[in-house]
């Protein structure tokens, strides 16, 4: 079980690093877009950012499904033994964070779809929606890490103590 848990934690962290890297890339592209706001290039960059966010959301969905199937059941079983009484509340908050982030990303994507011109005001609104989405997503990833790692470390400690 220790080896399985360690593998799960390694994958969890690898996926989080990749997701954070993609978010950072989107934020860098967004900063560049702000610098060239209103130009034809900014309109093209907005479409590129849109594609990256679609890919990011697919990766996040796959990660979330894997977490629900592999990570949370192990941690929930351990939490039910009384070691981590706030676990269920924490998972609910994480799910709500994820839903909120999805809503912001969807709003951004929908707005980009109707934002056909390179109008500065529309581009600023798109950037604003994207900034909020990225912020919520970043916080969501950090919250997951702050919930998963302490419980996993307690579980590993407990297993090592019993052996």
From TrEMBL:
Parts forming coiled coils: 2-29
InterPro entries hit by this protein: Hemerythrin-like (IPR012312)
Keywords noted in UniProt: Coiled coil
Superkingdom of this protein's organism: Bacteria
Domain Hemerythrin-like: 9-152
Protein name, entry field: Hemerythrin-like domain-containing protein
Organism: Paenibacillus marchantiophytorum
